[in-house]
Design goal:
Blueprint: H1 8-15, H2 18-67, H3 69-74, H4 77-88, E1 93-99, E2 105-110, E3 119-127, E4 134-143, H5 145-195, H6 210-267, H7 269-282, H8 289-319, E5 328-331, H9 332-349, E6 353-356, E7 362-365, H10 367-384, E8 389-396, E9 401-408, H11 415-418, H12 447-457, E10 462-467, E11 471-481, E12 506-510, H13 514-526, E13 530-534, H14 537-544, E14 553-557, H15 565-575, E15 587-592, H16 597-600, E16 608-612, H17 617-634
Length: about 625
């Protein structure tokens, strides 16, 4: 409903105070009544004066007509002049004219000013006393100016007294209005104080009328409000304390979980790493098909365990802050091509289509994290899609951002699962939404949680839209930048190198787990390496005396029983008299299950590569070749 605009009178009324309104209500009727009364009385008196003047003029004219009849009949102008002169000298008569029947003015006598606006003219026919015929006309002008002047003076006096009376009435009305509105003003002040937080405000009860009831009601309401506020403050304080306690407990639980994941990912990876090494060594020089099949099953189980531990490791590294983003300008097409290369064969194996649309858009982001997000989304989409395929594309938005989408034609996600899809350890397992089993490799429900955490680090959010039976689309929004020259990713020692022969390479392996030492020694020995092992710094120093020259490569666990692998490597550098600025005397690789950044901040990425347990034999072989190649190039 449209609001009707307020009139100017209503606007003025809204701006007036209560005292002014009461005064106006008391004064306006009185003023209107007085003004109307004075006006009516004045008009009545003026009409009465005019009637009296007209009656006087009529009487004088009648008298003049009766006495001038014979003179008019006989044509005696002198007598007519004496008659007119005697009449004009009467009070209030200003002019007398005697005319003949043909209209000729025979006599015209004036008393005072002729131009008198306040005069009345009365004419009478003059009759012949004997023949009763009209012999002329007498006109008499009677002035009422004096009466009108007196009446005006009376009206002025009446108006003066009326003004004084209205002023007195206004003063009395103003005082009365202030007295009547005082309780209401006190109530308004009390309400304002109550609104400002004065909880002890009380208004005095002034009378037993409705205003007194209102004052008592206000005091009762203020008292109840005070008690309710006190109780609410107590409840809020209690709830705040409880919330703070629960928040502290949640933070402690989160820290404990992160510590547990870090510790578990390290301690549990130790035997898994040894299992990886021994399972790989079993296949060396083995030609029996039955045994090779069993070894393949063992390796498949080890790979499944490796996949699960990798998910835990990623979650632990994200929560401990070990993966800070490195923002730079990235061409999306470059990341899309990497995703296509990684999953094209996987899609073909399951009779699915993987469509990656080329784009010329650039975004500001961490390239590694973006690639990991897309890899997780595409992997998850391929796992849950049974027919159709997966589409990866980007679209420019009007607000200067780019939306990257991963579409699939899978079974979709029900509405009750959408709000939990990014939670940790949450998997949709009901009905047709169950994903395809990939051997023994099944996730822990951390893939999408990792996506959301990576998106948080990039300053964005992962969004999902889905229609059951039609498919889903996962999206992230990134800031767009102008196309430029792609920054080549910094060369890392972890990039896989072509398979090369490492026969004869002198390798010093340092680890405090005898099973790992035994497994890696067996594996490296099968590759033709000359291997020496050590469990601590002392054994490492004793081991290097077996060679006349420094080892070609040192592979060390990061955390040892006494000190760290970095301490042992630094000791070996001093032994070989390495000075600051000199190239390292040997290649070095650190293998660890730690995820906390404080354990890795002293690692120099230019000379030392870090691998996370468990390390596959192929990965270890490639890293050894790469580290040795970089070391020889530096020397």
């Amino acid at each position: 409903m449209r609001d009707v605009p307020a009139s100017w009178l209503e606007k003025v009324w809204r701006r007036t105070s209560l005292v002014q309104r009461l005064t106006c209500v008391a004064l306006v009727p009185t003023a209107i009544s007085a003004v109307l009364l004075v006006t009516l009385l004045t008009r009545h008196q003026m009409d009465t004066l005019r009637d009296m003047g007209r009656a006087t003029a009529d009487a004088i004219a009648q008298q003049a007509a009766s006495v001038s009849g014979e003179a008019l009949r006989d044509g005696q102008r002198r007598d007519l002049g004496r008659i007119a002169q005697s009449i004009v000298q009467l009070p209030q008569v200003s002019r007398v004219r005697i005319s003949a029947p043909d209209g000729e003015i025979l006599v015209d006598r004036v008393n005072g000013s002729v131009d008198d606006d306040e005069s009345l003219t009365v004419s009478r026919d003059v009759l012949d006393p004997e023949g009763h015929r009209v012999v002329g006309t007498v006109s008499v002008d009677v002035s009422v100016e004096d009466a009108v002047t007196a009446q005006r003076a009376s009206v002025h006096n009446a108006l003066l007294w009326l003004g004084m009376s209205l002023l007195l009435a206004a003063m009395i009305g103003w005082s009365t209005a202030r007295w009547l509105s005082a309780p209401l003003r006190n109530l308004a002040i009390a309400v304002r104080q109550l609104g400002l937080g004065d909880r002890t405000v009380v208004v005095p009860v002034t009378d037993d009328t409705e205003i007194g009831d209102l004052q008592r009601g206000f005091n009762g309401a203020a008292s109840k409000l005070l008690h309710a506020q006190i109780g609410m403050e107590r409840e809020i304080a209690h709830a705040t304390e409880e919330l703070a306690r629960k928040n502290a407990a949640l933070e402690a639980a989160s820290v404990a979980k992160a510590r547990f994941l870090a510790a578990a990912s390290h301690d549990l990876r130790q035997p898994l790493y040894a299992l990886t090494l021994f399972s790989s060594g079993l296949a060396v020089d083995e030609y029996d098909p039955v045994r090779l099949n069993r070894i393949a099953h063992i390796q498949e189980c080890v790979e499944a365990l490796d996949h699960l531990f990798s998910e835990l490791l990623d979650l632990s590294r994200l929560e401990t802050g070990a993966m800070p983003p490195m923002q730079r300008d990235v061409p999306l097409d470059e990341v899309f091509e990497e995703v296509s290369v990684n999953f094209r064969m996987v899609a073909e194996q399951h009779d699915l289509r993987l469509v990656v649309r080329t784009t010329d858009l650039w975004v500001r982001t961490d390239r590694t994290m973006l690639a990991r997000i897309l890899n997780n989304l595409v992997s998850n989409a391929l796992r849950y899609t049974r027919c159709g395929g997966v589409l990866v594309g980007a679209r420019r938005c009007l607000d200067g951002t780019v939306r990257v989408d991963v579409w699939d034609t899978g079974p979709g996600i029900s509405r009750e699962h959408l709000q939990h899809i990014f939670d940790e350890f949450y998997r949709v397992e009901n009905g047709t939404e169950t994903g395809r089993l990939e051997g023994t490799r099944r996730g822990l429900g951390l893939g999408l949680s990792t996506v959301q955490k990576l998106a948080d680090l990039l300053g964005t959010r992962a969004i999902v839209r889905s229609r059951p039976g039609r498919g889903s689309v996962f999206s992230i929004v990134l800031p767009e930048v102008q196309a430029g020259v792609a920054e080549s990713p910094a060369p890392t020692l972890a990039q896989p190198m072509p398979r090369q022969d490492i026969t004869g390479m002198r390798v010093l392996v340092i680890d405090d787990e005898p099973s790992i030492l035994a497994g890696i020694s067996y594996l490296l020995g099968s590759w033709g390496c000359e291997v020496v092992t050590a469990e601590d710094a002392q054994q490492a120093m004793e081991a290097v005396h077996l060679w006349m020259q420094p080892p070609d490569i040192v592979i060390s666990d990061l955390r040892l029983r006494e000190g760290t692998g970095l301490d042992v490597i630094a000791l070996l550098d001093r032994y070989y008299r390495r000075r600051p600025g000199d190239p390292p005397p040997f290649a070095r690789v650190l293998i660890t299950g730690e995820t906390r950044s404080d354990f890795l901040r002293n690692v120099d990425p230019a000379t030392t590569q870090v691998l996370y347990k468990p390390v596959s034999p192929d990965r270890l072989h490639d890293v050894m070749v790469s580290a040795w190649s970089v070391h020889r190039a530096a020397v």
